[in-house]
Amino acid sequence: MRALIVLALATTVVGCTRWSMDHHLNNAYRAYDRGNCEQVMLELSQVDRTSRARPFIHPEVSMLRGQCLERQKLYVDAAQTYRYLIERYPQNEYAYRARARLQTLEQLGHYRSGEAAIARPTSTTPWR
Fold first, then answer.
1. Which conformational region is residue 109 in: left (phi greater than 0), alpha (psi within -120 to 50 degrees), or beta?
2. Is a pLDDT exceeding 80 seen at residue 120?
3. Strands (E), 29-106
4. What CATH number does domain 2-107 carry, 1.10.8, 1.10.3470, 3.30.70, 1.25.40?
5. Residue 16 above 60 pLDDT?
6. In this predicted model, what pLDDT tens digit does every residue of 48-87 receive, in sequence order?
């Protein structure tokens, strides 16, 4: 009897975590559709917190994060997010989409494939 109760509680907790993750991801997509990237980032951070044991969701979260960064005209950050996605999950569907986004950014002049995605300071004055 105890084993049955423990199993029921464990299933309920796992289900709640999955529901919570799906809920926040759905909210992120709704916020993206409305153009509210601040809300998207908040919802995606909630997904990250609830999905640590579910790495299959990370590519989708990274893709949506990159798209939102693009929408905010943070092209270097978006490109870096896409490159992370391609390197970390090369065979994933979202890696293929990330490659397409990088090509689009390159065609629009926001990204050059040969460059590092990290901006370097141009000033020769030492930091104080």
1. left
2. no
3. none
4. 1.25.40
5. no
6. 888 777 888 999 999 999 999 999 999 999 999 999 999 9
